[in-house]
Amino acid sequence: MASCAIRGGCPSDYLAVAFSVLSITLLFARASFPFLVHRDANAKSSGFWLVIIQIIGSFNLLLSLVMSVNYFTWNKQRMWQSCYIWAVWVEGPFGFGLLLSCRIVQAFKLYHVFVKRRFLPVRSRVLLPLIILPWIGGAAFIHISKPLNHHCHMSSQWVVPIVCIHGFYIAVLIGVTMAVRHIEFKFHEFKDLLRGIIVSSIAVGLWIAAYILNDVHEDILWVQVASRFFLLVTASIMVLLFFSISVSQPLLSQISLRRRDLEFPTMGQALGIPGSGSINQKATISTDLSQPLEKLLADKRFLLSFMAFADSCLAGESIHFYDEVSELSNIPVTDPVTRVYMARHIIEKYIDSGAEMEVNISHKTRQEILNTLDIAHTDLFNHATNEIIHLMKTNLVNDYWSSVYSVRFKEETLRQHDSYKLEQMVWDFSPRLSSVQCSDDPFQQDYINRCSSARKSNVLDMDSR
């Protein structure tokens, strides 16, 4: 017990390492499952890379704890086993620092989009290093000061600076979260940020207690063993909880596997936009195919037929873009939050360079949209829509009218029109006077009783006369 408490290799140490391996395995499975199921994640989006960076930060955090704290019996005289590499750099800025910095970037993006109603002036790949820079400076200062002993422990006087570094990042996250507390989010982003604050704060508090016990009380053997076990198990649980808290969009949650995030195939349906994803039109009159394309696209059935044709030609992004912009126009101006959700979705899916379904519009129009001062503006996509309409008229319309999709649409429209006319026909079932006698009725079997009673009444009338 005495030897393993100092050098490592106690049964509890191996149990803690096994638990950390299990947690990181679950993390990888949890992160990869949505992409394996949907297979449509955009690897160029900032949201995707923030997820990858969080996975790297989680792995670095657990690995650095295993390497820097005495869980195994090995000699740390080699360069790659240095305490400063693992305990200062990998565990600090490139471990827990990455996790908190990614969450801060997500919070900043929410603040700018929903409060400022514009995108961040800098990209996430630039903002993330800027946020993590103070932590890197602190790690460099600790490395220069050399406060660690051969057990990778530091004296109690260094506890306060370490706590200040962690507390500073948590305070920044709290500040940005409080700045968006008045926004009525549709998908619980504010609650997710609060959960992230709670988890990170509790984790830091528990780690501080474990570090104090492990670093200061080196002479108490059972404290060394218990604090090591508690430190790694707590970090493993925190990694899973922190990663499972999602602030992403509802179509494909890149962090969470909550069922509600996988129920909606389109953003319009997720936001509850009236008529999104359904065909409520009824063919009362035949569609006038000589109308301009803009009016034809207002017919949902024609839009779906035209969209199917464009998809078959691998050119469907323009029609999908037009459809979602039309859904955006159905959102009232008095609901800016929903408009921001939809506009952000359209920009990330169709406008961003390298987007999943990037549309072919001019650079000037693209920059006007990306640099807009109001994402919820009603005329945000007007120029882009005009260019897309012109593109469809030039490249798709003529081919559509000569395709089988056009023939099917015309047949379906004609069939629905005929059925509608049949439904509108008025049938008169009112009784009419007839001079047909019962004896002349070919179906007199049904009226024998009535005919006989009629004859009897006639005979009685004649007798009375």
Automatic annotation (TrEMBL):
Keywords: Membrane, Transmembrane, Transmembrane helix
GO cellular component labels: endosome membrane; nucleus; plasma membrane
Gene3D superfamilies in the record: Regulator of G-protein Signalling 4, domain 2 (1.10.167.10)
Full protein name: Regulator of G-protein signaling 1
Gene symbol of the encoding locus: LOC120262025
Classification via InterPro entries: RGS, RGS_sf, RGS_subdomain_2
Domain RGS positions: 292-410
Domain of life, per lineage: Eukaryota
Transmembrane segments annotated in the record for this chain: 14-36, 48-72, 84-105, 126-146, 158-180, 192-213, 225-252
Gene Ontology BP term (one): jasmonic acid mediated signaling pathway
Keyword Cell membrane: no
Pfam families reported in the protein's UniProt record: RGS (PF00615)
GO MF: G protein-coupled receptor activity; GTPase activator activity
